[in-house]
Amino acid sequence: MLQSHGQRLSQNCLALYCGTPVRLFNVQTAWRFLRLYTSATKDSTSDQQQKLLCQIRAYQKENVTIPWHMLVAQYRMPFDSMKQIQAQDDTRIREQKELSVRVTQRAEQLYNKDRGRCDWETVANEFGKPLLQCLALYDSSSSTIVARSRPNITDWPIEDVEVLKSFIAKHLDSTTSNNLQLASIYMNVRHDDCVFINSMLSRPKMTADLHEAIKQCRDNGMRWKDIHERYPFWYSLAAFRSSYMHFRDELPQTADKDNKIKWTESETTRIQEILKEHYKPGSMRLAKKVATAEFADKPKIKVLNKVIRTRNNLYLKSNKHNVEKIRRLVETHGEDWVRIGAEMRITANQVQNLWKKCAQRYNVTSGWAEDEVEIIRNCIKNGIGPAEASRLVGTKLMSTCADMMNKLNNSEQTERLDVHRLHWSSVDKTRLAVLTSNFDHKAIDWAHISKELGRGIKACKLKYGILSRKRHNNLSGYTDAINTEAQRQYEQRSEIDWAEVSQTVGLSERECLEICQFDEGKNRWIYDPETFSWDAANKMTAFIEANYPSPIHVNYRAVSNYMWVDINACINMAMLLRGEIEWTDKILAKIIELRDQGMKFKDISKQISPNLHENKVSAAYHNQFSRKMYSPISDEDRQLIRRLLDKHAETMPYEKLASFIVARLTSGDKFTQTTRIALYAMFHPVYKARLEKAGKTNVINKILAGKISIRNLALELDLPVRILRKLLSNAKSRTCSNTWTHEETEQLMVYAQANTPPYNWKLFSTQLGSKTASQSLRKWLYLKKNSML
Questions:
Q1: Where is the Myb-like domain (predicted)?
Q2: What would the DSSP string read from start to end of 542-574?
């Protein structure tokens, strides 16, 4: 053993050092090598140890001699330390095997034959271990307990299903294959069966055996509610029934026909006699009881359905016998429905509905008379429903009256609606064209147009599409004539008189500008902040405001033909007028020059574009300087950051450590250096372990409570600020969905209308609780852009 500067060097260190070239043999090199070796042996992490153990076990599994000299060079770890790590792992494995044997033996002793599984809660309490750890220690290969086989869903009792659901919800954070292996040990069933029943709990699917079991229950007269309690895999009773019906409908039809119960004429007659003897108005219980007892050889559900169908045919169907009887009783007793119902052996509501069916059966007509439409209008004004309206009209069904009421309501002008007018006159078409021309084709107020024309919205949209296609087809026929006339004028005098073109072709001047495709010799605008004149841009603005006022969509082909400038140049100039600019090197150089002269960003923005906001100029200016000042970090400094973090992360506070590392870096600016250090620290195992120890949920709750800032909390936990900000961002992204519901949008619109800008989006997001301030701001901008506010 050699000692140097208070450090003891082992033979392994000397062997490694002797491998260095002779030209490096000096005191400085030796001292640097000593520090590197000491750091490597001292800072071996648990990940390295785990990797080392996996490699050693692989050699032992293949019965290969372990090459210790290679492992020493690979992991930079002394031979004695490696043997010690191996011995500790051997001891751990041996203790775990002994504990597994004891857990397995105790589980066999606590096996309950009635329940068919072990009392694992008692095992966990006796050994003082978590339940999942005891299940993982259980060795099924050495146990005498045989796992139960339950391949079919009907093999699972409701009690075991509830126990499994409770175990998964309480102990398993995810239903992976390994976790379900623990669940199968807990329930003492085969692993495949446990996976199958878990899939049924998460995504239930109707199977053949389950369908047959449900069908048997229904034939025995069980209610759907009771069957659903026996097989509680579907979240609701409606979904359970729907799945059963869908599976039944997909079965071969021949099987249904073979299994269909056939009723003879004598059996049907006997059912009628039972009803006449035991049926009472509003109560079929006694009749059903007698019928099921008498026809015990048939499925109970089929007998009950037959009784109901027979009752409906006898008393509720509007056949000739019932119609004559109810008419005679109404003529005798008037509309005394209780008395009439008692004589017809049905309830008052049933006899009233039967009377409506009988009255409409012989009085229904197809067309609508003016007096009938007037009755419907009065019903709408007085708030009367379709059923009463059908009775008042007397010649229309309830559904027909409901359709007419909807048609009148959609028109929004019931007094002026002519239900017989399906033809569009030339005046109506002209009015439709005039009304739609006041809007952009993407933002037409159809409700306003429907109200003005007295027609439905759907009819207006349909006719507008037809007229638009006709107009487009008609105008496309003038394209060649307009192009020819424009080319003739341009070749004669190098300019085009659009008024003359309009008179020659026979269209308006604006239509000629929009249709003309002749573009030979058009100019191009090149924006230069020093030499550019705004006269042409102002001329273009005046033309757009005169011909395409908001919200009408601008036709830039017409603008291009009017200005005789390339269409792309016109679009770029319009963007520039709106304050949307492309930051070229020349413009940035001009901004830097004016800024050096002491000019404010507000004045600089006006020189570039009249509508350009000063914040955009400021952002472009600072981004330009950030790109110039940016200096990347060299690979050597990156390696140095990692080494210093590994060495001092556990012993030195992060704030001091970051300053300590920055002082030793030779490349990059200070901002780049601190950012790189924070990025490496985010994924360092020491800081990740500290965050896990503090608890991510507790940290997020402290930040959201607002009692402590992120920076102060980072100092308290000795963590980089970037870790906490990233954690908070991820938490918000999980809790705050990007999708806005109708209620959330309504609340935002109410808030924006009730307050004046600038809005406090942070306060609004706190009140809403489901969206961040930035999400609220983006949603407001979207609504404002689409003219929804």
A1: 732-784
A2: HHHHHHS-TTSPP-HHHHHHHHTB-HHHHHHHH
CB atoms within 10 A of CB 43: 15
Question: 156: which residues sit within 8 A by CB, 6+ positions away?
Answer: 150, 197
* Pick from 612, 616, 617, 607: nearest CA to 534: 607
SS3 369: coil
Q: Is the dihedral of CA 688, 690, 696, 699 positive or negative?
A: negative
**713 vs 443: CA distance, rounded Å:** 51
Q: Strand 111-112 and strand 7-9: pairing?
A: unpaired
Kindly tell me the burial class for residue 614, based on how many C-beta atoms sit within 10 Å of its own C-beta (0-12, 13-18, 19 or more).
Answer: middle
Closest CA to 783 of 758, 751, 760: 751
Cα 438 → chain centroid: 38
Whole-Å CA distances, 332 to 315, 326, 328, 336, 339: 19, 10, 6, 10, 11
DSSP, res 118: E
Give the integer Cα–Cα distance in Å for 10 and 72. Answer: 12
Q: Which residues contact 477 (CB under 8 A, 6 or more apart)?
A: none
Distance set, CA 245 to CA 225, 232, 260, 395 (Å): 15, 17, 16, 38
Nearest to 72 by CA among 44, 92, 33: 44
CA distance 643 to 38: 12
Residues 6+ apart with CB under 8 A from 45: 646, 685
Cα distances (angstroms) measured from residue 47 to each of 53, 56, 58, 60: 10, 14, 17, 20
The rounded radius of gyration (Å) of the Cα atoms in the chain is 43
pTM of the model: 0.33
3-state secondary structure of 284: coil
DSSP class of residue 112? E
- Binned at pLDDT 50, 70 and 90, residue 566 comes out as confident
Dist CA 712 CA 726 (whole Å) = 16
Each residue's pLDDT tens digit, 72-113 = 777 778 888 888 888 888 888 888 888 888 888 888 888 888
Closest C-alpha among 215, 242, 212 to residue 300: 215
pLDDT at 361: 58
Alpha-carbon gap, residue 604 to 618, rounded angstroms: 10
Tokens of 128: 């003082």
Average pLDDT of the segment spanning 47-73: 78
Percent above pLDDT 90 for the chain: 0
pLDDT at 416: 44
Query: Which residue from 454, 416, 450 is spatially nearest to 436, judged by alpha carbons?
Result: 450
Instruction: Name the nearest CA neighbour of 591 among 578, 603, 577.
Output: 603
Residue 501 makes CB contacts below 8 A (sequence gap 6+) with: 482, 485, 486, 489, 509, 512, 516
Taking a C-beta distance cutoff of 8 angstroms, is the pair 570, 524 a contact?
no
Q: Report the distance separating Cα 93 and Cα 214, nearest Å.
A: 51
- Contact (CB, 8 A) for 577 and 610: yes
Cα–Cα distances (Å) from 392 to 336, 364, 401, 407, in that order, read 19, 13, 10, 18
Q: Are the beta carbons of 660 and 724 closer than 8 angstroms?
A: no
Three-state secondary structure call for residue 144: coil
Mean pLDDT of 380-385: 81
Burial of 103 (0-12, 13-18, 19+ CB in 10 A): buried
The answer to whether residue 465 scores a pLDDT higher than 60 is: yes
Compute the distance between CA of residue 499 and CA of residue 562 in angstroms, rounded to an integer.
Answer: 11
3-state secondary structure of 650: coil
